[in-house]
């Protein structure tokens, strides 16, 4: 018996307590757009950037994938700290944040 609400995210399809909710891939939430703009400004040489609201659209939790040459020579914790610093104000209103960073391979 499940007593907690479970949320799984796969390719813009959310499964919430057994009910499927699909979000149009071409639209961004306001929160996603705001975070993308901040990160583009902070990391102008980012080769790729993806921000997804994994809270079902309420803005409580985000997943960020960012690939930037600005991370070169830095440990993962240092890379994540740079992202956290860039989003300092936004993080105050979040319940969680998943960060995935990488350096471009080319």
TrEMBL record:
Cellular component GO terms, alphabetical: mitochondrial matrix
Keywords associated with the record: Mitochondrion
Source superkingdom: Eukaryota
SUPFAM superfamilies per UniProt: BolA-like
Function: Acts as a mitochondrial iron-sulfur (Fe-S) cluster assembly factor that facilitates (Fe-S) cluster insertion into a subset of mitochondrial proteins. Probably acts together with NFU1.
Family affiliation: Belongs to the BolA/IbaG family.
Subunit structure: Interacts with NFU1.
Record-given protein name: BolA-like protein 3
Native species: Pogonophryne albipinna
């Amino acid at each position: 018996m499940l007593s907690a609400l479970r949320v799984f995210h796969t390719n813009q399809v959310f499964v919430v307590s057994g009910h499927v909710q699909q979000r149009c891939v071409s639209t961004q939430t306001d929160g996603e757009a705001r975070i993308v703009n901040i990160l583009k400004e902070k990391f102008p040489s980012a080769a790729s950037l993806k921000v997804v609201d994994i809270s079902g659209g309420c803005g409580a939790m985000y997943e960020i994938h960012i690939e930037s040459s600005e991370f070169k020579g830095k440990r993962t914790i240092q890379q994540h700290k740079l992202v956290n610093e860039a989003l300092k104000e936004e993080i105050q209103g979040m319940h969680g944040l998943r960060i995935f960073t990488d350096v471009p391979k080319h």
